[in-house]
Amino acid sequence: MHEQLQRLRDEAQRLVDPDTWSYVGRGSGDERTVSEAHDAWDRYRLRPRVLRDVSHVTTDLTLLGGVWRTPIGIAPTAFHAVLHPEGEVATAAGAAAAGAPMVLSSRSTRRIEDVAAAIDGPWWFQVYVMRHRDITGALIERAAAAGATAMVLTADTPYVGHRARTPALARGIPLTDDQALINVHGHFPEGAADYWELIDQRADLSLADIAWVADICELPVIVKGVLRGDEAVDCVDAGAAAVWVSNHGGRQLDRAISTAAALPEVVSAVGDSVPVLVDGGVRDGFDALTALALGANAVMLGRPVMWALAAEGAAGVAAVLEELTAELRHAMGLAGATRLTDLDRSLVAARPM
Q1: How many distinct structural domains can be found in the chain?
Q2: By C-alpha distance, which of 280, 275, 299 is closest to 288?
Q3: What is the pTM of this model?
C-alpha cells in the first residue's frame, strides 16, 4: 500500500468511532473477496519497454466526453457524512482539486445540487433502481439537470449482501434518517409509511433497465458490477456506453472473483466497442498501471477515498488522488509509456509461481 494511503488509513481509524469504521470496511460473508482484492493485482508483473523518450509523461484522460488529469477516480460510496461533516461536498472538492473523475452515489448525504456545485468539471451519477421507480427517475432527472454527464447503473445489488451488523445501529448505518434520506424525502408518494422499503433496490432488474435509464436522461449509461465477458457483451448489446468491472468492494456476493482476475476477460469480450472501468483493491500507482495495461480505461477507488475523507477532508481526498497519480506517472515512464494509450497487455505478465 502507498505510504501516504497507509498514513491516512491509520489516521481515519483513529478518528472515527469503531461502529463507523466497521461499516466502511466490512465485506459480506467471511470477507474472502475483500481479503483477496489487493493480492490479485500483485499476481501480475510488468514488462517494461526501454530506449523510449519518456521525458514528458501525461496521465490525461478523455472518456465519454469528459476530460480529466488522471485516470484514477472516485467510485460511488454511500453516506460520506458518517466520516466528515461536509460529506460528499468535501469529496467532490477533493476530486476537483485533483482533476479526477467522480461518481456520486444515490445514497449521498448531501444534496445532489450542492455536490455538483463543488465539482469543476464533468461528473457521473450512480443509479440504484429502487422499488419505487418514480423516485429513481426523479433522482436521475435532478442529477442530469445539475450537470451529470453519465449515469452509472449498479447491477450487482438486487438486494444487499449479508454483512456483520453492529446491533446498536439501525440498518447497520451510523447516521440519521434525515442525513440518509436527504435526496429522496421530497419524492416519496403521499402517505408512504416505510421510506426505507421504497428506496431499497429492486430485485427484478433486467437488461431493459439500461434503456430505461438512458431514456430518462439521454445520457450515456455505464453498467457497474460486471464480472463476466458474456454479460459485458449483453450489456453493450442492450445499449451500455461502458462497462465497469466491480464486485462491489466485496460487500455483495462473497467469494466472487476478484476484479483483477475478471478484467482481462471483460476487456477481451467487448474489444474496442466501449470503454471499461475497474475498481477493487487498488492501493497504489502500480496497481493502477497494471489495471490500465490489462485494458481498463479508468481505475476507481472506494475505501481509500473514505479513509482520506475521514482523516483530512477534501485535502486528504485530493492528496490520495494526486499521490497515486504521481506514482502512476513515474511507473509509466519507467515502463516506457508516455500516455495512457501506450499501455497495453504486452506490458504485463502473470507472476511466476
Answers
A1: 1
A2: 299
A3: 0.95
Active site residues: 248
d(C-alpha 214, C-alpha 203), whole Å: 20
Residue 36 lies in a domain: yes
Could you list the residue range(s) of the whole structural domain that residue 153 is in?
3-347
Residue 61's identity, in one-letter code, is L
What's the pLDDT at 36?
85
Q: In sequence order, what DSSP letters do the residues of 276-322 get, joined into one string?
A: EEEESS--SHHHHHHHHHTT-SEEEESHHHHHHHHHHHHHHHHHHHH
| DSSP-assigned letters across all residues of 29-48 | TT-HHHHHHHHHHTTEEE--
Nearest to 347 by CA among 287, 337, 71: 337
Q: How far is it, in rounded angstroms, from Cα 132 to Cα 112? A: 19
353 part of a folded domain: no
Domain presence at residue 101: yes
CATH assignment at residue 49: 3.20.20.70
Contact assessment for residue 174 and residue 23, using Cβ atoms and an 8 Å cutoff: yes
- As a whole number of angstroms, the distance between CA 181 and CA 199 comes to 9
Are 83 and 309 spatial neighbours (Cβ–Cβ below 8 Å)? yes
pLDDT digits 0-9 by tens, 3-50? 888 999 999 999 999 888 988 988 888 888 988 888 999 999 999 999
How does pLDDT run across 177-229, given as a tens digit for each residue? 888 889 998 898 877 777 777 778 888 999 999 999 999 999 999 999 999 99
Residues 6+ apart with CB under 8 A from 190: none
